[in-house]
């Protein structure tokens, strides 16, 4: 059973975002990015309250910018999703979860060692160039369901 409701259009959006944000980190890295997208929709807390669809997550604006750099910069995100990315997107929508992205709501590439916290949120782990962060204990129970 899927963690969140989704349509074919959502599979395409996640697939394009996964590729744009983590293609250089292989399938595993793209799956972690997909986890973060699904977690943000499922969480309904902190910066991600009242998001109702995958589209809301992908195109969310915070502080005057899109939450995902790939949307703003237009790199690979605006190319068509390939079969592999679509398959990976369906995996995360249909409950694939693994650390460090299992409960993560944030990730970024610091181009340096991962900090222990990021905006007061604890470090969950690193995969290749990306650092992943989970919500602080007790602040976001929806992400753990």
TrEMBL record:
GO terms for molecular function: hydrolase activity. Residues 24-133 form the Cell wall hydrolase SleB domain. Transmembrane segments: none annotated. Pfam families: Hydrolase_2 (PF07486). The keyword Oxidoreductase does not apply. InterPro entries: Cell_wall_hydrolase_SleB, SleB_dom1. Keywords: Hydrolase. This is Cell wall hydrolase. It comes from Ureibacillus sinduriensis BLB-1 = JCM 15800. The lineage of its organism: Bacteria, Bacillati, Bacillota, Bacilli, Bacillales.
